[in-house]
């Protein structure tokens, strides 16, 4: 489906329904109405920027463009992880960026081998983008959990180090909590009833003309890849973080 295939009348009808809903929202709560407008504006601008960047990647259809896109997206994701975890971006951006780029590219490559397509660079850019968006939330949660665990177990770690334990052994409880936090964030999204919340990746495939069975199979592969990428990225993040 192309942009020109979207019906203008349908867009106007959706806009009209949105205007009615916002009008009712304005009557009910004016403060929340302003927040809703800001959220809609932010979402629209982000989607426009994302669509423009991916359009360039699609038009070029070369690997270097996809790799450049992956690096840029991972850098932005690293900044977002540092912000959500309330950590200095200069210290947290590099470990988070390395974890995101490595985990997303590795699992996107695995998915690329499983999905037969003729436009590898295009699909790689899409899969990597979806994996990064899924990993940012889990990595932010696990990073906050890891930092809090280090703070709460400082006395215990000093006790272990004083009794001959290695630094890695003293960090094992905090690493376990961080990995658990990353897995829980992904498992919660996987456990949602599909009749209530359909995965966007699954719905996007159906809109694009993919058969329902193939869309379901690819969606299952993607959720498994997102879980694996989240856990791997947490371990890589901690390894880079502790070496700095």
Word description of this protein:
The chain is mostly helical. The chain has 9 helices and no strands. Helix 1 packs antiparallel against helix 2. It is globular and about 75 Å long. It starts with 7 loop residues before the first helix and ends with a helix.
Question: How far is the N terminus from the C terminus?
Answer: 47 Å
Low-confidence stretches: none
List SSEs in N-to-C order. Answer: HHHHHHHHH
What is the tally of beta strands? 0
Q: Which structural class is indicated by helix and strand composition?
A: mainly alpha
User: So what's the oligomer here?
Assistant: single chain
Strand percentage lies at under 5%
Would you kindly provide a brief summary of this structure?
The chain is mainly alpha-helical and 244 residues long. The chain has helices at residues 8-28, 30-60, 63-84, 89-114, 120-152, 154-162, 167-190, 200-207, 212-243. It is built from nine helices and no strands.
